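Inverse folding, one chain.
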C-alpha cells in the first residue's frame, strides 16, 4: 500500500513538475504557477517513503544480505534498468533534437547515461545503486547497533541534511560542519528500518497522525504560497522538515493497517510499480513536449484537467508496465 501510494504520488508530482520546470514551453499565470508549485511540493514525501520502504525491507533482522546477493540481485537489477532505459530515453531526446538517429547518436546516448544526462527521473536509480553497493555496511551496522545508537545516528543525519539547510538559508552563509555520511537518502533509508522495528509511542495513534499530517500539509502549502508570492527561497523540497514530517506520518499511518482490498490484487499492482516509475515519463514527454497538449490546453479548466491527465498517465503507465512484465528478459532481470 505504501509503495503503490508513493508511485501514484510520483505520477502526480511529475504530471505537475514537467509543466512548472519548463517555462520555455509552458507559460503559467501567477495563479497557475502558485497552484502548480504548491501541488508539486505537497508530493515530495513520495521519494523519501520509497527509501524508507527499502530500508524497512532490506535491513530487517531476518533478511540475510551478503555482498554476493547485494551485487547479483540488487545492484545488477538497477544498473541494467539504468543502462537500458537511460540509453533509450537519452537517444529519444537526442533524436528529437538532431532530427535523426545514427551510430554517433547511440554513442552519445551511452555517454549521457554515464554522466547522468538522461531523463531526470532516473536520478533515483543512481542514488539507489550507491546505497545498495554499501548495503552490507548498513546491514552490519543496523544488525549490531542498539535502537538508541541508531536513533543517535538518525538525529545526526537529520540535523546535517535537513536542519543545516534551514540554518544556511536564514544566515545566507554555508554551514561548515561536515560528516562522512552526508546524504538525506541514507537518512530516510535508515529511518525506514528504525520505524519498522518499532513505531515510537507518539506515532502509534493513526487518527492523531492523520490530524497532524493535515496540519503539516496546510503548513507546507502556506510556506510554498508565501515563497512563490514574495520570491523568498524557503526550502519546501525533499530536504525540508515538512517533507520529513509528511513522510514519517504517512509511513506510520499506512504501515501495518488493514488492506482495503484483496492482498493478491495489491501484490500484483505492487509488482508493476517499478516498471511504472521507469516508463511513465515517456507518456508525459510525448503529450507535453511533442504534442504540446497539457492541462493548460483546457483554458479555465486547467485545475480539473490536471486530475484527468494524472489518471490517464497512471492507467497508461501501469498498462505499459504490465506489457513489459510479459517480456521474459525484462521480467527476469529488471522488473
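Residues assigned per position:
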Amino acid at each position: 500500500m505504501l509503495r503503490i501510494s508513493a508511485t501514484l504520488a510520483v505520477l502526480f508530482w511529475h504530471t505537475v513538475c514537467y509543466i512548472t520546470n519548463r517555462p520555455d514551453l509552458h507559460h503559467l499565470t501567477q495563479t497557475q504557477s502558485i497552484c502548480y508549485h504548491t501541488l508539486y511540493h505537497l508530493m515530495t514525501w513520495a521519494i523519501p517513503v520509497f527509501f524508507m520502504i527499502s530500508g524497512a525491507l532490506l535491513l530487517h533482522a531476518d533478511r540475510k544480505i551478503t555482498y554476493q546477493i547485494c551485487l547479483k540481485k540488487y545492484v545488477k537489477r538497477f544498473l541494467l534498468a539504468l543502462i537500458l532505459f537511460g540509453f533509450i530515453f537519452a537517444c529519444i531526446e537526442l533524436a528529437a533534437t538532431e532530427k535523426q538517429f545514427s551510430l554517433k547518436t547511440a554513442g552519445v546516448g551511452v555517454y549521457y547515461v554515464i554522466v547522468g544526462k538522461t531523463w531526470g527521473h532516473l536520478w533515483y536509480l543512481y542514488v539507489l545503486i550507491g546505497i545498495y553497493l554499501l548495503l552490507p555496511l548498513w546491514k552490519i551496522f543496523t544488525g549490531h547497533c542498539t535502537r538508541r545508537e541508531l536513533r543517535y545516528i538518525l538525529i545526526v543525519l537529520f540535523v546535517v541534511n535537513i536542519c543545516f539547510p534551514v540554518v544556511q538559508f536564514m544566515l545566507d552563509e554555508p554551514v561548515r560542519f561536515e560528516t562522512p555520511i552526508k546524504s538525506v537518502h541514507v537518512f530516510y533509508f535508515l529511518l525506514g528500518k528504525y520505524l519498522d522495528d518499532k513505531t515510537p509511542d507518539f506515532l502509534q495513534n493513526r487518527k492523531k497522525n492523520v490530524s497532524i499530517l493535515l496540519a503539516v500539509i496546510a503548513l507546507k502549502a502556506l510556506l510554498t504560497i508565501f515563497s512563490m508570492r514574495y520570491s523568498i527561497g524557503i526550502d519546501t523540497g525533499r530536504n525540508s522538515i515538512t517533507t520529513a514530517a509528511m513522510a514519517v506520518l504517512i509511513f506510520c499511518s499506512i504501515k501495518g493497517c488493514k488492506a482495503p482490498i484483496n492482498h493478491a490484487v495489491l501484490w500484483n499492482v505492487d509488482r508493476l510499480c517499478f516498471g511504472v516509475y521507469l516508463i511513465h515519463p515517456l507518456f508525459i514527454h510525448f503529450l507535453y513536449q511533442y504534442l504540446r497538449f497539457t492541462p493548460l490546453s483546457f483554458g479555465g479548466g486547467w485545475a480539473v484537467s490536471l486530475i484527468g491527465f494524472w489518471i490517464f498517465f497512471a492507467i497508461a503507465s501501469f498498462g505499459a508496465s504490465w506489457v513489459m512484465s510479459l517480456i521474459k528478459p525484462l521480467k527476469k532481470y529488471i522488473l
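Residues 157 and 187 are 6 Å apart (CA to CA). The first helix runs from residue 2 to 20.
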